[in-house]
């Protein structure tokens, strides 16, 4: 339930935009164009605003074209030929064919067919001529305007999602250290499952980055936010690398517990300290700051991993190596190029 409430919070601004866009589209089509029941104005506005979540402008324009084609073809057919079985078949073929010729994807092609069927079956009054198409155009234009001046997701969402990914990584590392200390195979299995689940958060982050970049590139009112949005978008790559290395570490931790191999305590302490640094980085993001100030702590931690004694255990050595890799990934997250981040950590002694 908490996840669903969080999802509602993330999408509520989009929901509000859809609702306001639908209401305004009806108002304009009814009072400005004088249409008594401009059904397609709010419908078109809601559809176009709704699908603008993500690759906003490109997708919104494509779906808008699909809606306009469907309503327009349906309007023409109803006006010229009325409604019936053969009209429904033909209007659907024509609308979807035109959308295909315009280079539309499957979603837009289906949308064109759906809208043409609605016009032909639910509102088949030939006297309306092209008024329904004009209503749809009003809704589409208004939706594109909303997508330009009011982003469907706040620009702070990538920063929040990046902080949540870091918190998930730190929590997983703490569970790893607990499982290793207690040599608990069941706990290690649970940690491995949690580490594998980080992909969902990263996917949300990638979508939020695409959304944020789309907003600042297409909206004249958001151009000044481009440097900040790009900076947060660049966090995705090192976070993805850190998550991949975390999964390898968790897998090796599980193997070590299955086999009853003991991992040195100083290795586990390094994992705990890494989790603490990651929590600090997450807090920096929550406080609207890039975690650049964590770089010295990460470099010192990387130097300490180089001083750890190598033991005769493959699992322990892999765990140490993956800890070092995660440190390098997080140094890169502070704005250091990948090669320099790796060079900041001395070789194993």
Describe the protein in words:
With 349 residues, this protein is mainly α. It has two domains: 2-149, no CATH class; 157-343, Phosphate transport system protein phou homolog 2, domain 2 (Methane Monooxygenase Hydroxylase, Chain G, domain 1), CATH 1.20.58. Helices cover 77% and strands 0% of the residues. The chain has helices spanning 2-31, 40-51, 56-81, 85-101, 106-121, 131-149, 157-182, 185-196, 198-218, 226-233, 236-258, 265-286, 295-306, 314-333, 338-343. The model has no long low-confidence stretch (mean pLDDT 80).
How would you sum up this structure in a few lines?
This protein has 349 residues and is mainly alpha-helical. 77% of the residues lie in helices and 0% in strands.
SSE blueprint and pairings:
Elements: H1 2-31, H2 40-51, H3 56-81, H4 85-101, H5 106-121, H6 131-149, H7 157-182, H8 185-196, H9 198-218, H10 226-233, H11 236-258, H12 265-286, H13 295-306, H14 314-333, H15 338-343
Average pLDDT: 80
What amount of the residues lies in strands? under 5%
Number of domains: 2
Quaternary organization:
single chain
Distinct helical segment count: 15
- Specify the CATH class of the largest domain: Mainly Alpha
* SS-based class: mainly alpha
What is the global morphology? elongated
In CATH, what is the homologous superfamily of the largest domain?
A: Phosphate transport system protein phou homolog 2, domain 2
Low-pLDDT parts are none
The CATH architecture name of the largest domain reads Up-down Bundle
Radius of gyration: 27 Å
**Beta strands, count:** 0
> The CATH topology of the largest domain is what?
Methane Monooxygenase Hydroxylase, Chain G, domain 1
Succession of helices and strands: HHHHHHHHHHHHHHH
